[in-house]
Write a structure and sequence with these properties.
Elements: H1 3-12, H2 15-19, H3 21-36, E1 76-81, H4 99-111, E2 115-121, H5 122-135, E3 150-155, H6 162-170, E4 175-180, E5 192-196, H7 210-224, E6 228-232, H8 234-244, H9 249-256, E7 262-266, H10 272-279, E8 285-290
Antiparallel strand pairs: 1-3, 1-4, 2-3, 5-7, 5-8, 6-7
Helix pairs in contact: 8-9
Length: about 300
């Protein structure tokens, strides 16, 4: 696969689905058969088990799932190509990258066993920004011109090899910048982020009350039939920021902490955009949005 094929798949947003279509169809058929009960029973009907109620931890908010204990490996990098907006950088020396540069990067990425290789350009970044505006209920008729950014992102096999890979790509023709690209803890664990009111962020009022948190969790449970719901407090937030930004964690945490706790939702079947619309904005909620990878 060359860079043009990779780019067209990523912009269409269907690359992953195309690659896994056969598997998805097979899983769907098996699930349907199980759902309608077409598999014959060898013996009599199974007894219906009485579910055992799960005791609540003292102080735990009803409807909350235990926080995941699997942390992402920080092994991702971003390779920015030379474009018109970066021509003044010494690495570009007034020259835009060409197709041969991009294909050379792809070849080197295969040699270095870079996984999860993705292509991100100004058009895709613009789409994500427009989606965020729609989810926030803001007008989208304002023109957001696409930038000329072009990035490759991917993950090295081991975190210990990240700096070496950055050095290798930085020295290649057509590359403007290469940098460590943080992996958000919630990328693999949630689809929707609900931000609660904190000491700041909701003008004219203070942090969300326990009653408001409980009401929001009940609303999530009633409307979304979520697979899991997590509440991230300041302690977990600090740990997340330290994992993503070890060199700048203290400043970032001090800037974010006053804006309150967050609720993260793993959806069962709804799209994140539909879930955000259905939630609305009940008392105590500052915002809701789709969980996406950190932008380059």
């Amino acid at each position: 696969m060359d860079v043009e094929e990779l780019a067209s798949e990523e912009r269409a947003g269907g690359g992953w689905i195309k690659r896994h279509l056969t598997t998805l169809i097979a899983v769907g058929i098996v699930g349907f058969i199980l759902a309608v009960g077409w598999i014959p029973r060898i013996s009599g009907p199974d007894p219906v088990a009485t579910p055992t109620p799960v005791p609540e931890t003292p102080g735990e908010i009803s409807g909350m799932s235990p926080l995941p204990d699997v942390w992402p490996v920080q092994n991702r990098l971003a390779i920015q190509m030379c474009t018109k907006s970066t021509l003044t950088l010494p690495a570009c020396d007034g020259r835009e990258s060409v197709l041969e540069d991009a294909n050379a990067i792809l070849e080197r990425a295969r040699e270095l066993r870079i996984s999860g290789l993705s292509y991100v350009d100004g058009k895709l970044l613009r789409k994500w920004r427009l989606d965020d505006l729609r989810e926030d209920g803001l007008p989208t008729d304002e023109r957001i011109p696409p930038g000329d950014e072009r990035y490759f992102t991917g993950s090295v096999p081991r975190p210990s090899s990240l700096e070496a890979a950055i050095t290798i790509f930085r020295e290649m023709s057509g590359v403007a910048r290469v940098a460590r690209f943080p992996v958000d803890f919630w990328e693999e664990h949630a689809d929707v982020r609900v931000e609660l009111c904190g000491r700041q962020g909701c003008p004219g009022r203070g942090p969300a009350t326990e009653a408001e948190k409980t009401a929001i969790l009940a609303r999530i449970d009633n409307l979304l039939s979520a697979e899991a719901v997590y509440v991230e407090d300041a302690t977990h937030l600090k740990k997340t920021i330290e994992a993503m930004h070890p060199d700048d964690a203290e400043r970032r945490f001090a800037a974010r902490e006053p804006y309150g706790d967050s609720i993260y939702i793993k959806l069962s079947y709804l799209s994140s955009a539909d879930a955000v619309r259905m939630l609305g904005k009940p008392p105590g909620m500052r915002d809701a949005s789709t969980v996406r990878p950190v932008l380059p």
